[in-house]
Specification:
3 helices, six-stranded mixed beta sheet, 8 strands, elongated
């Protein structure tokens, strides 16, 4: 996929290390995501190494374009999220240990020398999108909205001349 989303864990110096990446439509296409039509995301990662501890702070900002659920036109959704991770080596002892305070814990095999951030960025961006993706009121395509508004409601009268079921009124009682 994209070699740029790799953090070389063996090559990290003690202290803070910074990485900068960008993700666009091609990034989401590589995951076969057809919902995201376009994207312009800036990704900043700060990896802090202190002994065996590795903390990864990932900041994603920008926008993605999806289809409006109401009018099917393009809808731009801003993305601004922080992902805080702790990297641990070995196998997870239990599911309760997948949190380290505010940080999500990622377990890597002991012999792993790289952390691929592609899946992490993809998952968090997709999870940040709202379930219902619609334009603000009045911003949808007016041509599409006229079909959604439906026909005018016609009042039904009880006149025997107009109501075909009027003859059934006295049938049961």
């Amino acid at each position: 996929m994209n070699d740029g989303f790799i953090i070389p864990l063996n090559g990290l110096t003690a202290g803070e290390n910074k990485f900068f990446w960008q993700a666009g439509k091609e990034f989401f296409d590589s995951f076969d995501n057809s919902e995201i039509l376009d994207a312009q995301l800036d990704i900043e990662v700060r990896a802090e190494k202190s002994g065996r501890y590795i903390g990864v702070d990932c900041y994603v900002s920008g926008k993605v374009v999806v289809e409006c659920d109401r009018c099917l036109e393009d809808l731009e959704i801003p993305v601004d999220l922080d992902v805080l991770l702790s990297v641990k080596f070995g196998e997870s002892e239990s599911t309760d240990e997948n949190q380290d305070g505010e940080r999500e814990v990622i377990f890597l095999p002991v012999d792993n020398t790289e952390l691929d951030m592609e899946q992490v960025v993809y998952d968090y961006v997709c999870l940040s999108l709202p379930l219902q993706r619609v334009h603000e009121d009045g911003e949808c395509n007016p041509d599409a909205m006229k079909y959604l508004e439906g026909p005018e409601v016609v009042e039904v009268s009880d006149d025997a001349d107009k109501n075909p079921f009027a003859a059934l009124k006295g049938l049961f009682g």
